[in-house]
Amino acid sequence: MSAFDARHEPLRFGYTLAAIDDIASNAAATVFWRGSLDRRRRTETAWSAIAELLYSAEEAPTRNDLFCAAWDACRSHARKDNSFHGWRQGYDAGTMRAYERFWALAANPCPGPESGVVERIALAQIWARLTPTHRRVLLALAAHEDYTRASEAIGVKYHSFLSMISKARRAFLALWHEGEEPSRPWGSDVRGKQPRTASVTSVAVRLRRRNRAKNGITGAPPRRVRAKRDIGVSDEELARRYRDGESITSIAASVGLAKSTVHVRIGPHLHA
After folding, report:
1. Could you state, in order of their start, the residue ranges of all structural domains in the chain?
2. DSSP assignment, residue 161?
3. What does the DSSP 8-state code read for residue 215?
4. Is the dihedral of CA 200, 202, 208, 210 positive or negative?
5. What highest taxon heads this organism's lineage (predicted)?
6. pLDDT digits over 132-182, tens only?
7. Which CATH fold would you assign to the domain 114-176?
8. Helix axis angle, 17-30 to 39-56, nearest 10°
């Protein structure tokens, strides 16, 4: 009696663990584009994709279906892996935005002093090239940590200070990226600003709903329809004048209504 081997027991649609291992191994070896994934990671990715397809398919997939699923999974994983590492492969191979983020942060558990040194040296070099006005507003904001107090400290109006600080930041970024296209200021500086509160309209709506519920009123409130202003001329007459060639502007001026109001009044009678 032969020994029991779980690898050759059928799982689903007649496929066994041995068959899945074989397809995954071959798919990992023959995938066309694999990026920087090593053989072990490609095999694991292919194996997972094959198992997922087997147990999610309603009909038995062919061996070729399993190969295609494994290849697609390997290529997708390779693209994501490259994106995470900040590397773009292909004819235009090169680094991407995530390159610095990964290698300087994620892959560096103990950051070195380089970033701090670069920032201090760059600040000293840029500061000397800023205009006195730009240095003045930046120093005021750094010292007071509040836009209102900073504007009062240098004797300018609040909104003028906001404009000046914006120009100072853009000038700083232009010097920081000297020789390159400068980035725009991003983020939201909330120093010295009060937290946002609900608008008057939203508060009024909540109070109205609360009062309606308290009084046992359900459903949408009745819509109030404004009565038409009596202009001494019927809407049918206005529509007739328009059909006879008189312009909307002329009609509106003669009866003292806005052109949009004339449009609304004559609309139903033009298509009657």
Report:
1. 6-104, 114-176, 235-270
2. H
3. T
4. negative
5. Bacteria
6. 999 999 999 999 888 888 999 999 998 999 999 999 999 998 888 887 776
7. Arc Repressor Mutant, subunit A (1.10.10)
8. 130
